[in-house]
Please model this.
Amino acid sequence: MYSTSSSKPLTPSSVKRITDSIMEEVGKIVVGKKDVIKQVLIGLYTGGHVLLEGVPGVAKTLIAKTIGRVTNLTYSRIQATPDLLPSDIIGTMVFDPRRNDFVPRKGPIFANIVLFDEINRASPRTQSALLEAMQEKQVTIEGKTFKLPKPFFVIATMNPIEMEGTFPLPEAQLDRFMMKIIVDYPSREETGIILRRIHQIESFNVRPVASASDILGVKEAIPRVKVSDPVIDYIINIIEETRNHKHIRLGGSPRAAISMLLAGKAVALMDGRDYVLPDDIKFVAKPVLRHRLILKPEAEFEGISVESVIDEILSRVPVPTPGVQ
Ligand SMILES: Nc1ncnc2c1ncn2[C@@H]1O[C@H](COP(=O)(O)OP(=O)(O)O)[C@@H](O)[C@H]1O
Ligand SMILES: [Mg+2]
Model:
């Protein structure tokens, strides 16, 4: 369960095989949502954390739980509330009468996949504690440091409708999430399948088709994925456009550019390739950028959305032709 970091890098064809089995197995439970599942896997593979945005009841929890099951990873869910304390997630020292000493009681953050539900309802202090753990991959319980398990992957959910008594994440904290993934309503047809399949979904019978060391092996393979100069330029051009756009107040950071590259490399591997195509970058551009860009107030006032601005940028920035690879 607590695998070491010295996993062997997997070959692109192994990554493709594992990804296909994961997608197939998750697909036995989760109806549709292929792109969402793929994007969550990109986060898991690269070690980037993700935000999942969607109204209640669109399978955010089901997706996280099912991915945990099929990858044989430990999973925990934390429901955020305004009175949730950092120690509620990290853990505390408790007195053990047998040993006549204080021993650590590790909190729910000690899992491979941590679903942090409704992150906006947690207090800024608890949000910071989570963000710090995400970054450091270790936590301190009353002066003692404990490493978090590997892989360590946080899926934080948020409701698209800002409710009262919530604490929006500051830009600097949003930037720490590799992607923001949107979970929409299922289509009419998908809803029909969900209804017909509901007892199978609820009984939740999936088998593990991958392991923690597989996931770590994918991560080790990422640095080996090649990326050509035209594809690097494509990323830079997209990022520059976000910084110079007439409707945007805050554009993409270097961390956004790096995330786009890493996520693009993960997509290449999932497809069994050892090189990145412009389409891989296109697939991840929106989830990587959408939570990082801030519109100018006048654009917002005119009803312009971040989504439409990113779409417009992607349609304008010339896509390098694969022949130049
Ligand atoms: N795409 C879907 N595929 C399968 N079941 C779904 C889907 N969307 C919703 N459901 C059903 O609705 C339930 C609610 O989903 P849940 O994961 O708890 O939603 P959320 O975490 O987004 O509030 C699921 O447990 C499942 O029974
Ligand atoms: Mg849920």
About this structure: The radius of gyration is 20 Å. The domain at 225-316 is CATH 1.10.8.80 (Helicase, Ruva Protein; domain 3). Residues 254-270 form the longest helix (17 residues). Residues 30-33, 54, 56-62, 186, 194, 201-202 surround adenosine-5'-diphosphate (ligand 1) (CB under 6 Å).
